[in-house]
Each structure stands twice: as structure tokens, then as C-alpha cells.
Amino acid sequence: MESASFLKDISFIIAILIEIFLPVALAIIIAKKYKTSWAVFFLGVLLFFASLIRLPLNNYISVLLQQYVPSQYIIISSLAFLSITSGIFEEGMRVLAFGVIIKKKDYYNGLMYGIGHGGGGESLGFVGLSTLANFIIYRFFPGILPETALTQFINTQWYTPLTGALERIFAIIIQLALSVIVMNAFIKKRYYFIAIAVSGHAAVNFTATYINYKVGVLYSEISVFLFALAGIAVIIQLRPKEKDSGSAAADTGVNK
Fold first, then answer.
1. pLDDT (tens digit per residue) in 134-145
2. Are 231 and 181 in contact (CB under 8 A)?
């Protein structure tokens, strides 16, 4: 029992370090190597949280779906709607950032924004800090937890936090890919890339959540891993040629 508890503690600590510090490390690397502005990173964080304005709409529509959709279709229609709104609102924030706010439209600003959006906002702010708070409460103040929550923590498998951290790594890769896709919509004036990003975002969310619902979390994580591999291919494919990278990174400002 003590061995399992120790492994669980180590797992939580490693997961928290990954979820909180990986985005910061990535941002430091991009900022130093390509002279991108930290303002772009924090813009990504800010607009990630701004994209959560969809949550009241999601809750409202979920209630309507339960009232008017046949019971056998409630789950799939709810997952589809949540995935579509996630794609529209999060990619909409990217369009706002790249189309209106960020002055210099280049690949590395797209990466920096993606790190802020998917790393600083989602991984660090939304997941990492909440995991840290829950772990501290569980380890040092378990008495303040409801019995059901405490039981859930006790019954958590030791590797579960690491699974969550691995998913954050995959998610950051996907967010980086989506960012460079939308940035390239403005760089190359191929605005249909925005529709590709919205559709891709929705597809990732729907596939992962539906597989989790049907066959379990392991297969869901495998699907996210495969999407992350596709994301790596996109990031590499859209990277500017070496001869263009110097001029692309020359001006990385944000509109005043």
C-alpha cells in the first residue's frame, strides 16, 4: 500500500512538472532562438481563456438536446456540438490574434501563440494548476474533501496522472499545428486554412471523446497520439525554408 501511494505521489509530481513547466520551457526556447515576443505567448493564454465564453452556450444547448433529442442520440449529438463549438471558438480566437492583433505574421509567432494557447492557458493554467491544487489538498488536507472525492483520489491508479500529462504533451503539439495552419491562412492568404483548422480541431475533440465513451481512455489516448503525429507532420511541412527564416523572424511585434 505504501509503495502504491509513493508511486502515485511521484506520478502526480512528474505530471504537475510537465503540465506547468513544459509550456514555459518551450516558450523560452522559441523566444530566445527566434526572437519572438512574450506578448504573443501571453496573448495566447488570454485568448484561450476568452474562448471559454462558449461554456454557458454549451450548457444551454446540452439541456435542450436532452429535452428534444431521442435518448439513443443524446451522447453523440452532445459530443458533436461540444467539439464544434470548441473548434469555432478556439480557432476564432486564433483568427482574432493573427488577423487583427499580431502585427507581424510569421511562422514563429504562430508557434509562440500556440504555446501560450495550448500550453500556458490549457496545460499550465487550466490543467496543471488545478492538478497541483488537488494534489496538495489530497496529500495535506484530506479532511476537507467530500467522502466521494477522497475515495476517488484513493482509488486513482498510480499511472493515471502520467497519462494525463502525456495527453497534455499530445494536445500542445496539436495546438501548435492548428496555430501554424491559421497563421499560414494569413501569411499565404489561403483563408480556407481557417476552415481546415476549425474542422480539424472539432474532429480531434469528437474522435477522442467518442472513443473514450465507447471503448475507454486507452484507445482515446491512442487516437490523440495519432493526431499529434499528424500535427508534427503539419508543423514540419509548414515551417519556412531556412533562407526565409531570418526575414520571417525580423519583426515579431504585437499591435499597440
1. 889 888 888 888
2. no
